[in-house]
Amino acid sequence: MNKCPQKITLGEMRAAGVRGVLIYCADYKCSHWIRMNADQRPNDIRLSDLEDKFTCTKHPAKTHKGLARF
After folding, report:
1. N or C: which end of the chain has fewer CB within 10 A?
2. To 10 degrees, the CA torsion angle through 66, 67, 69, 70?
3. What is the per-residue pLDDT for 3?
4. In the chain, at which residue ranges do the beta strands (DSSP E only) sit?
5. 46 forms bridges with which residues in the sheet?
6. Higher pLDDT, 1 or 51
7. Are 36 and 20 in contact (CB under 8 A)?
8. How many domains does the chain have?
9. Helix%, strand%, coil% for the chain, nearest 5
10. What is the pLDDT of residue 2?
11. How far is 14 from 29, CA to CA, in rounded Å?
12. Phi, psi of 12 (to 5 degrees)
């Protein structure tokens, strides 16, 4: 079960003119992050749905958090 609050859908994000997402490690001591183009993902996917699908390559036990890139 996802403990994160429900976030906007990628369709809502695109409607606001945002096309990319920043994915960063949930460990506040880690500065590892990536940029992701979300164009290939469906509109009904929420950012909170994607978070559990990423794993930090520096901290494999940690999950990532997603932010819309403005």
Report:
1. N
2. 170
3. 60
4. 20-25, 33-37, 64-69
5. 9
6. 51
7. yes
8. 1
9. 20, 30, 50
10. 52
11. 31
12. -65, -40
- Find the Cα–Cα–Cα–Cα dihedral 46, 38, 65, 69, rounded to 10°: -110
Q: Is residue 62 part of a domain?
A: yes
pLDDT at 59 over 60: yes
Joined together, the tokens standing for residue 68 give 């819309």
Q: How many residues does the chain have?
A: 70
- In this structure, how many other beta carbons lie within 10 angstroms of the beta carbon of residue 69? 15
Decide the pairing of beta strands 33-37 and 64-69. unpaired
Secondary structure of residue 55 in the 3-state scheme = strand
* Lookup: tokens for 58: 């520096």
Which domain covers residue 58, as residue numbers?
A: 10-69
In a domain, 30, yes or no: yes
Share of the chain above pLDDT 70, in %: 74
Whether residue 16 is contained in a domain is answered as: yes
For the chain, state the CA radius of gyration.
12
